[in-house]
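Hi V.,

Quick status before I head out on leave. The structure for the redesign project is tokenized and pasted below; the design run finished overnight.
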């Protein structure tokens, strides 16, 4: 009887363990919920207006991303404000508002401006200024009232985003740098005024920077003296002077010779014998 009771207890324990393992496996095999969302049927460039050919649908398992679109009608006719890769779910914040159209305008955030700067191959950092890059803006010229000091270069804007390069706001399909003629920069209205003023009479240079480097650096203006190692002349120091002595008062002598009278003035006799 003892052996039978022990065997029954062991068998019952084994059965309970098997039951738990089987129940856990069956629970894990339950299918998760799926959702069909709108996705890109091909690479959609920045500024393109979406059409039916640009869209498709895909099935996502689990919770869809925030802002996902479930109907193609919600995306058709809206401009892309960022580049969207093929097979990527299209989110509402990647598209401009309905009726905004395509091109550069919908990509400009509220309160900002797109300012065009004419450049050449050298100024455009040999064509490597492409949309999404960050640049500093330098100007060179003769400051007002200092014509004798030569050309001075100064950094007027830092960490400025490039909206477009050339007449096309798309990147080169082969991945090669674009040879740009016009660069549109994303600036504030105050910065747009500075760029407009500089483009009229000064030479503008773009300096490429790391997009992760957002630190603003105070850079002093550089003149021709810095280029050739000539130190900038320091202001002349005048020796300390004591209070100015009051001017000595001359004295006058009247000489009378008969009916003639003559006045003669002499320096102060102080200190003289």
């Amino acid at each position: 009887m003892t052996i039978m009771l022990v065997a029954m207890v062991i068998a019952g324990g084994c059965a309970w363990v098997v039951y738990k393992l089987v129940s856990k496996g069956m629970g894990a095999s339950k299918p998760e919920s799926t959702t069909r969302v709108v996705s890109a049927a091909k690479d959609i460039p920045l500024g393109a207006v979406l059409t039916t050919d640009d869209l498709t649908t895909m099935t996502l398992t689990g919770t869809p991303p925030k802002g996902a679109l479930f109907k193609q009608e919600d995306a058709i006719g809206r401009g892309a404000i960022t580049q969207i890769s093929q097979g990527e779910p299209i989110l509402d914040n990647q598209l401009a508002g309905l009726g905004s159209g395509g091109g550069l305008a919908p990509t400009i955030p509220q309160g900002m401006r797109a300012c065009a700067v004419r450049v050449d191959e050298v100024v455009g950092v040999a064509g490597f200024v492409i949309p999404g890059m960050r640049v500093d803006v330098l100007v060179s010229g003769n400051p007002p009232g200092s014509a004798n000091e030569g050309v001075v270069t100064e950094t007027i804007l830092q960490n400025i985003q490039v909206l477009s390069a050339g007449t096309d706001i798309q990147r080169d399909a082969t991945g090669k740098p674009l040879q740009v003629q016009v660069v549109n920069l994303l600036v504030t209205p105050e910065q747009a005024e500075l760029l407009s003023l500089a483009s009229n009479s000064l030479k503008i240079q773009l300096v490429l920077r790391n997009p992760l480097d957002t630190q603003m650096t105070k850079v002093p203006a550089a003149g021709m003296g810095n280029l050739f190692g000539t130190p900038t002349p320091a202001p002349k120091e005048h020796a300390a002077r004591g209070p100015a002595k009051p001017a000595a008062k001359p004295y006058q002598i009247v000489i009378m010779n008969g009916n003639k009278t003559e006045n003669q003035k002499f320096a102060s006799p102080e200190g003289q014998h």
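Above is the designed sequence. The longest helix spans residues 2-28.

G. will cover questions while I'm gone.

Best,
W.
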